[in-house]
Amino acid sequence: MGRLFGTDGVRGVWGESLTPELLLRLSRAIGAYFGPGSRVLVGRDTRRGGDLAVGVVSAGLMYEGVKVYYAGITPTPSLQLYVRDHGFDGGVMVTASHNPPEYNGVKVVGPDGVEISREDEERIEELYFKGEFGGPEVRGLLSSPVRVEGVNDYYVEKVAERVDSEKIAKVKPRVVIDCGNGATSFTSPYIARKLGAKPLTLNCNPDPQFPSRHPEPTPESLRDSAAVVRAIGAHLGVGHDADGDRAIVIDSRGEVHWGDRSGSLLARFAYENKLVNAPGRVYTGVSSSMLVEEYLKPAGIEVVWTPVGAVTISRRMMNEPGVAGFEENGGYIHPAHQYVRDGGMTMALMLYMLVTEGLDSSRLFSKLPKYYAVKTKVPVSTRSEVQCFVEEAKSMFSGERLILIDGVKAVGEDYWVLVRPSGTEPVVRIMVEARSPERARELAESVAKSLSERCKKQ
User: Fold this and answer.
1) pLDDT tens digits, one per residue of 163-176
2) Where in the sequence is the domain holding 427, given as residue range(s)?
3) Per annotation, catalytic residue among 38, 58, 78, 97
4) Residue 117 falls in the annotated catalytic set
């Protein structure tokens, strides 16, 4: 049986690998999974083809007897919260998250507001490939989705309730918010104002072409935003992806920090200030830096390494509670709010930590061990190439500590290297961290070159 779901939902280039025909069949399988009579909330981000994709998804769901409700353009965590708190049987989010503008896709959400488990993804795939949909008695029961108003307003209110807004309002920190032309245009600036902060918004005009920058928030794509933070003397900057489940933080000096750095700070802050009623434990993907252990273990916080993917972390935390879950890509889970990555909640927590610990965000980040990260990716065309990269990486670093979770992570004395297949693109991702930028760059280039030479010859 084939695979549809990747690390985070189903994605493809709109009109090529993700066609209306595929999406219709997939949505019928999702409808059969939820069952006739189920209430499912559908939303989308700002990507091109979003309206058409929502129409196809809604048609497929309704053909299987599902009662479809439409939230409009909304961040994924906003839709997830509304599904959980308003008694829906599930949700479908039309989004490709951080992928390039030509992509689109879907995420399937369970009644608890969390993306469905890997086992449930496989169930939908089984229905899809076998064509096991509902019988004729359930088809065409409803003619149109029901529009649901106030999904984003509800989300803004609930995020603001999770932190001490009065404390933030007394200080009025200045925060630069880069929405990346995505769905957080409708939420994050309003969260900041609700908390009493002073937001300056960049790229918060929704645009399906994402003309301002790449949808993925990275040090490279947030370079202009970092310059604005420095220029106006802002206390903080935040950059989101297209569907708002990520938040990459920029400190007051204009340095852009990966999510494992901001996640480590927030996790320790949440633990020491008892923001979460849970044991001192965090869950983080194997792609996160070893600084997580260096910073959190002295505070009595256990670090649990997991495969990459928020679904895995979320579901694990629901069974084995912890104070936080996060990944280096900017996804942070605050379980007192909801068990999903939430960029708006991350921003609110950062502002709360900032006014509690002092307004110099660069000083907060200076507490962390210093590593320099380099990320690259190598296109692959076959499964054998992917497997070759993984096996050759094991051989290349056989003398180091190896963490064989979701690829190969080799931990040396002053560096670490991760080689893992992407769950969303036909590439192998290579991540390197070292004590100096030169060492990190040299390692990343040599590993990518060596593995490519060995595996591209096959």
Assistant:
1) 999 999 999 999 99
2) 372-455
3) 97
4) no
